């Protein structure tokens, strides 16, 4: 009986467990999760800030009974501490030792912070795990007239800002780049979206600025400006969790290096999700993580399927608008043509083609054509 061990209960780890069970009814499957709750859908976390009730069926990836019925041995609160590849074993925080024939590292990523004085004060929060959100909820509960600074104006930072505004908390977003959502918006789209943010009561933004110090009730920016802050939230990206792999001698660059089959330099060890660097890319997105987990499981069980890193699509809902961004938005150079549309206030679109092929989609306001346009994306040479 083949023993499969999976470290990490996120999108990649859970999807891998499901695929392994689909491919074998007799295999032993153990899924280790450092968190003490059932594997959940991380993208739904920010929805709870607005007081939105997310049904368990939408929040958790699978109900507890599912793991029992499918004989997936889910170990919650088990942190993997050491991999002994010579004996094919993993030691955990409880002192347990788990042996494997095939091991999948799906340890995810951790919220990045910056070396800023005051960054560890009790009113400073990360926004990566359910525990982070629970701690934030506890801190702000029952308090009126609060002000917050969100460090980072990307997708997650703006989701945080929207959620805090729903709680009647004044918010200042501080973004080091000169525009919001620099990975998703082109220059024109960023200008339109910035105007939407400015129009929102209770929200201010500082672009092209960095936080230099966090005090007990304010933050200081690099230009000397002082902004009141009862709450501070880090939203400056995520760092792949690679330490476990690195200590065991596996190759690590930005993430755990894998080949196109999601296999590391050890043929018995695979990696997938936010901790993995597949085809030289770390995606950090939910759907690619699920696909990597599935492909890893296929190959762990004897298959030979390659992971194809397709385009990355991002969606945002908030501040009275919707955004869809996919592919190479804002691309410039020879053979590149961008067609602009919309009224420039409530709707905006930018479709970018390279050598006659659609390679980038940006939609603001009206995103109804997103899926139709997505089918036309073509990155072939």
Plain-language structure description:
- The chain has helices at residues 11-23, 56-59, 64-69, 130-140, 155-166, 187-198, 243-247, 286-300, 370-374; strands at 3-7, 28-33, 72-76, 80-84, 89-92, 97-99, 102-105, 109-111, 124-125, 147-151, 170-175, 203-207, 211-214, 218-221, 226-228, 231-234, 238-240, 256-258, 269-271, 276-278, 313-318, 321-327, 336-341, 348-354, 357-364.
- By secondary structure, it is of the alpha/beta class.
- Helix 1 packs parallel to helix 8 (286-300).
Give me the Rg, rounded.
Answer: 22 Å
CATH second-level architecture of the largest domain: 3-Layer(bba) Sandwich
Secondary-structure content class: alpha/beta
Strand order of the largest sheet: 3-2-1-7-19
Q: Based on CA inertia axes, which overall geometry fits?
A: globular
What value does the average pLDDT take? 93
Into how many domains do the coordinates divide?
Answer: 3
Q: Estimate percent helicity.
A: 10-25%
Gap between N and C termini = 45 Å
Q: Give me the count of strands.
A: 25
CATH superfamily of the largest domain: FAD/NAD(P)-binding domain
Number of helices: 9
Largest sheet: 5 strands, parallel
| Binned strand content | 25-35%
Keywords:
FAD/NAD(P)-binding domain; 5-stranded parallel sheet; alpha/beta; Enolase-like, domain 1; 381 residues
